[in-house]
Design goal:
Elements lengths: L11 E7 L5 E7 L6 E7 L6 E3 L5 E3 L2 H11 L7 H17 L4 E3 H15 L1 H11 L5 H10 L33
Parallel strand pairs: 4-6
Antiparallel strand pairs: 1-2, 2-3, 4-5
């Protein structure tokens, strides 16, 4: 493995362990030339995937690109990293099991949107706004309508506010022994 700091070719593995979900091996490495330390991950790859872009270009699938776009959508959101990793692993497994070497970027985008819909509504809307190239507020309203449960949109009417803590009903304390 080439050292990312000095380019040396003789890096040494100091520690190896499986990731929490046992889908990869995490290796801690050190470069004897410069002393640089870095981590690598080894994952199973069933086949070489190619992404067919909207422009018609074919490019190799890069998991790192997928991770980056998901992390941008999830920035500052309270979502556990383990859940995100499970979602990403599931998407990659689905892509590898499709049976074709060429996957359209639309297929990947739809899989990511479906995964984000399960993880975090805000991240879903953020990703959708870029992926679907939102141009006006109506596009956001449509995305929010997709997130609705039982046909009820989650958006608030203009001029209304979310209920404050004072407006929410409070649970009454349980009666004590002899009262």
């Amino acid at each position: 493995m080439r050292c990312p700091y000095c380019g040396g070719l003789e890096t040494q593995v100091r520690d190896s362990r499986p990731t929490e979900d046992n889908t990869a091996i995490r290796r801690r490495r050190i470069c004897p030339d410069c002393g640089g330390r870095f981590t690598t991950f080894e994952r199973v790859q069933l086949r070489e995937l190619m992404v067919l872009k909207r422009s018609g270009r074919r490019v190799p699938f890069e998991r790192e690109k997928l991770e980056k776009s998901v992390s941008v959508a999830l920035r500052k959101r309270p979502v556990d990293n383990e859940r995100v990793e499970r979602m990403l692993n599931g998407i990659v497994r689905q892509l590898e099991s499709v049976g074709e070497g060429d996957i359209t970027s639309e297929t990947i985008g739809e899989m990511v949107m479906e995964g984000l819909k399960q993880l975090d509504d805000v991240a879903y809307v953020r990703f959708a706004s870029v992926y679907r190239n939102f141009r006006e507020a109506k596009d956001f309203e449509n995305a929010l309508a997709e997130l609705s449960h039982e046909g009820e949109p989650r958006t608030l009417d203009p001029g209304t506010e979310a209920p404050s803590a004072a407006d929410k009903p409070r649970a009454r304390p349980a009666p004590r022994g002899g009262e």
